[in-house]
Specification:
Blueprint (H helix, E strand, L loop, with lengths): L1 H20 L9 H8 L4 E5 L4 E6 L12 E6 L2 E6 L1
Antiparallel strand pairs: 1-2, 2-3, 3-4
């Protein structure tokens, strides 16, 4: 019984991480649409002179694992481009 409970808890935790990282982003989406699809970003960068903003989503939830991060760039409140 304990093994089943542990497996269920682990699967719920892992599914939450996977869902967050595999969110669907398309060019032209608004910031609110990205929040609805991916949740709140882990980090936000403001580029004042270019009038752009970049949101960073951490794949593992850790600041130090940059290789798996997703970066979404916005201009005028809409997705300009994104990179995994």
């Amino acid at each position: 019984m304990k093994k089943i409970l542990v497996l269920v808890i682990l699967s719920l935790i892992l599914s939450g991480c996977i869902k967050r990282y595999t969110c669907s982003i398309k060019r032209g989406m608004t910031q609110q649409e990205v929040i609805e699809a991916c949740g709140e970003p882990d980090r936000v960068y403001n580029y004042i002179f270019r009038q752009e903003e970049a949101w960073e989503y951490h794949k593992s939830g850790s600041f130090y694992h940059r290789a798996g991060n997703k970066i979404v760039h916005f201009k005028n409140g809409k997705v300009l481009f994104y990179a995994d």
